[in-house]
Write a structure and sequence with these properties.
The structure holds 2 protein chains of 2 kinds.
Chain A (H helix, E strand, L loop, with lengths): L1 H29 L2 H5 L6 H10 L6 H13 L13 H36 L4 H15 L2 H15 L12 E3 L2 E3 L4 H33 L3 H8 L4 H31 L1 H6 L5 H10 L3 H29 L11
Antiparallel strand pairs in A: 1-2
Helix pairs in contact in A: 1-13, 5-6, 5-8, 5-10, 5-13, 6-8, 7-8, 8-10, 9-10, 10-13, 12-13
Chain B lengths: L5 E12 L2 E13 L4 E5 L6 H9 L6 E10 L2 E2 L5 H7 L4 E4 L3 H4 L6 H12 L4 H14 L5 H4 L9 H14 L4 E5 L7 H18 L2 E6 L2 H7 L2 E6 L2 E7 H6 L4 H8 L39 H5 L5 E4 L2 E3 L10
Parallel strand pairs in B: 3-8, 3-9, 6-7, 7-8
Antiparallel strand pairs in B: 1-2, 1-4, 4-5, 9-10, 10-12, 11-12
Helix pairs in contact in B: 4-5, 5-7, 7-8
Classes of the chains: A mainly alpha, B alpha/beta.
């Protein structure tokens, strides 16, 4: 188990290093941030000073050397635009995104799995057809359009919920969270639903496919032949057997939401990291982009690790071994 | 004869398919007394498994029990509400399935599956249920039952798993056990171990047993009476030795003639010509007529009714074989 963890973490480090290198040189090739950052009206001396301060006067391999040097000391560089350490900038925005992502995923699980099981157990019932039709709409309409429709319906027509922004936050262990205040929660609901719709549709389809397959297995009939209650047959014997694909996809999707919730964050003016990334790319703010993507890779590796551990809990035939990949 | 534990009268189970209504079990009647072993013999698709599931009331749509009575100790199970059936299944009637690899839920430990069965029917503590489960495993000859309880099905061999399933069936001391080809998936040595184990356990408890199989040799060693099924109907019944020595139905004779060990060495085995008929378009007369060497025009025109023949024997045939005693 320990060997397994160490190997997974060193794989993560390798991927992070490769990716940081590619992104670093890639962004260098895209363009010169100086053109975007410096006030055109500033005089030449001022411009020179800024370029020197950002270290952009050096050749690219020297810049990369500085970057690596900083990395060893845990310094991912300082944002060209905000003049703050890149990591600090990202971490200050991360709680908002995490909150949004986790609530969205939670909604997707809590609604998606039961709905998918209903559809899988009674495939011909009208309710099941309605659920499946809903799921098709859920993942075939664009995310931004769903967001705009939610705003139109709940914020404009009904006026129940605010259209954007984050609302009041409360600090828990020094991290600002909004789900603990009513104002914060009301701001959180619409974007979270927006994030949830697509995932939920996916979960419904996976759960339905799994349920209709597992429901025909001998062990389900045998569970019924032993006189177990329908609740136990469905809630334990079927559910536990369909969770593996659901967990896999949800794991990947969680990473996706955290790293790339940019559409939802833009539509709802949610101050998360997705917006930060897009802004930073636009301004060629290289330290922020590199730090952001390194964090993303780390996050994905961690989520995959959690998913693998979840597999072994869900299915005893999957055992985590130190020797094999 | 003492009052039968199970008395089935005119049981008819149909399936509505695209191609029309299929009668998988057609007017089947039989009795099983306490401690009696009834062997139900037939080829694949003869309706023997569906008969077993019909007794338990475990027929899923599009199938339904169209007619008949299933009397367990005089109570008609078909009129019982579903909640009452849950209480009966696994408690008064236990079932053993064909494939031990598929019967136990792969993601739940043996103890989970045994304890849930006990606690579905008996108001006992978890600890007491665990003791009962360990006792049941010891009874069927599983070494170190307490440790075995903590394993998952995939950690056991096929024979071990089938022992576990038998232990679960016997655990609550049911009145009737329905065993659907429980030894077919096992190799011959394990098969005979399980058979003798079953005989020993049943003799102790006076439990009625329906043993569904396609294997006449197994029936010869185990059953008291035999019912031979063909195309959803019982074509011949009788005490096992008498029926096997003097088969009166050409189909029964054909089955016996196709067992390798029943004919002298060197003689050619005689297969039954043709194939089991499709239940969708059965011939108007005797279902076996197209394959029967003795079939006449009467056989092709009308279905033979059941005739009692003395010595507890009955058959459905216009031209019974006259075999000398």
């Amino acid at each position: 188990m320990l060997a397994y963890l160490i190997r997974r973490l060193s794989q993560a480090l390798l991927v992070m290093a490769v990716m940081a290198t590619i992104v670093f040189f890639g962004l260098y090739a895209v363009g010169n941030p100086v053109d975007l950052l410096i006030n055109p009206e500033a005089d030449l001396a001022e411009q020179e000073a800024t370029i020197r301060r950002l270290g952009l006067d050096k050749p690219v391999h020297v810049q990369f050397g500085y970057f690596l040097g900083g990395l060893v000391q845990g310094d991912l560089g300082t944002s060209f635009v905000h003049n703050r350490p890149a990591l600090e900038l990202i971490l200050s925005r991360l709680p908002a995104t995490l909150e949004l992502a986790f609530l969205g995923i939670l909604i997707a699980i809590v609604l998606g799995i039961p709905l998918g099981m209903i559809a899988g157990l009674r495939p011909d019932a009208p309710s099941s057809k309605l659920i499946m039709a809903g799921s098709v709409i859920g993942f075939s309409t664009p995310n931004f359009w769903q967001g705009l429709m939610l705003i139109m319906l709940f914020a404009v027509f009904l006026g129940w919920l605010p259209a954007g922004g984050r609302g009041d936050t409360v600090d828990v262990l020094g991290i600002p969270v909004s789900f603990l205040t009513w104002d914060g929660l009301s701001h959180l609901i619409l974007p979270a639903v927006n994030v949830a719709i697509f995932k939920m549709s996916l979960v419904i389809r996976l759960t339905r496919a799994g349920t209709s397959e597992v429901a025909l297995q001998d062990y389900v009939k045998y569970a019924r032949a032993r006189g177990l209650s329908p609740t136990r047959v469905v809630g334990v014997h079927i559910l536990k057997n369909i969770l593996i694909p659901v967990v896999t996809v949800l794991g990947l999707e969680t990473g996706n939401v955290i790293a790339f919730a940019v559409v939802t964050e833009t539509v709802f003016a949610w101050p998360g990291i997705g917006k930060l990334l897009i802004d930073s790319i636009g301004l060629l703010d290289r330290p922020v982009v590199v730090a952001y993507l390194m964090l993303t890779v780390f996050l994905f590796v961690m989520i995959n690790l959690v998913v693998d551990i979840a597999y072994s809990i869900l299915d005893p035939r999957v055992r985590i071994r130190g020797a094999k990949a | 004869m003492s009052t039968p534990v199970l008395s089935v009268r005119g049981l008819t189970t149909t399936f509505d398919t695209r191609a029309g209504t299929v009668t998988a079990v057609d007017g089947v009647s039989f009795d099983v007394g306490p401690g009696e072993v009834l062997g139900v013999v037939g080829e694949s698709g003869s309706g023997k498994t569906i008969t077993g599931f019909s007794v338990l009331g475990l027929i899923d749509p599009p199938g339904k029990i169209a007619a008949g009575e299933v009397l367990l100790n005089g109570r008609d199970l078909r009129t019982l509400p579903e909640a009452e059936m849950h209480r009966l299944r696994g408690d008064r009637i236990a079932m053993i399935f064909q494939d031990p690899m598929m019967t136990l839920n792969p993601v739940l430990r043996i103890d989970t599956q045994m304890i849930e069965t006990i606690r579905a029917h008996r108001d006992v503590s978890r600890a007491r249920a665990r003791e009962m489960a360990a006792e049941a495993l010891a009874l069927v000859g599983i070494p170190s039952p307490v440790e075995r309880l903590r394993t998952y099905p995939h950690e056991m061999s096929g024979g071990m798993r089938q022992r576990v399933v038998i232990a679960i069936a016997l655990m609550l001391e049911p009145d009737l056990i329905i065993a659907d080809e429980p030894t077919t998936a096992l190799d011959v040595t394990i098969q005979s171990q399980i058979l003798s184990e079953m005989q020993r356990l049943l003799a102790q408890r006076n439990t009625a047993l329906i043993w569904i199989t396609h294997d006449l040799t197994v029936v010869a060693g185990l059953a008291d009476r035999v019912a031979v099924m063909y195309a959803g109907r019982i074509v011949e019944t009788g005490p096992v030795d008498d029926l096997l020595d003097r088969p009166a139905h050409p189909y029964t004779q054909g089955l016996i003639a196709s067992i390798p060990s029943a004919v002298p060495r060197g003689t050619r085995l005689v297969p039954i010509r043709g194939m089991t008929p499709s239940l969708v378009n059965l011939p108007p007369g005797c279902a076996f007529a197209p394959r029967c060497p003795h079939a006449s025009n009467t056989c092709r025109a009308a279905r033979p009714d059941e005739q009692a023949r003395g010595h507890g024997r009955a058959l459905r045939c216009f031209h019974p074989l006259e075999t000398t005693p």
